[in-house]
Amino acid sequence: MRYLLILICVVFGGGELCAQPAVAFETKTYDLGEVGEKGGAVSRDFRFENTGDAPLVIIKAETACNCTKVRFSRKPVAPGRKGTVTVVYDPAKQDGSFLKAVKILTNTPEKQYIVTIRGNVVP
């Protein structure tokens, strides 16, 4: 089966049809610990590398509430290069413990990745 796939890739496009990006995050979760309610927004960078052999594109990133924002570059990340998704959390909009997820949509075969931040907002 593997040889058939390689043969198909070589015959149809010199292997270019089989080139795909791949994402390897350094970490997919951060524990922010205690966050002061009046201390202002806090942010964490989720660093990743394109471990594939085609350019990686982050299509969009989604959050579930207005207390969490996300920033990322829309420029393609070349194979072997690194990129960053920054998650910003505003503790003034919630108190107590929190767990916030960000869905990152990409052009990889897996299509989406989830990164999370968690912590506890204190007065």
TrEMBL record:
Signal peptide positions (record):
1-24
Mention any Pfam family matching this sequence. DUF1573
InterPro entries per UniProt: DUF1573 (IPR011467), Ig-like_fold (IPR013783)
UniProt KW keywords: Signal
The UniProt entry, under PANTHER family, shows: LIPOPROTEIN-RELATED (PTHR37833), SIGNAL PEPTIDE PROTEIN (PTHR37833:SF1)
- Protein name per its UniProtKB record: DUF1573 domain-containing protein
State the organism of origin. Answer: Alistipes hominis
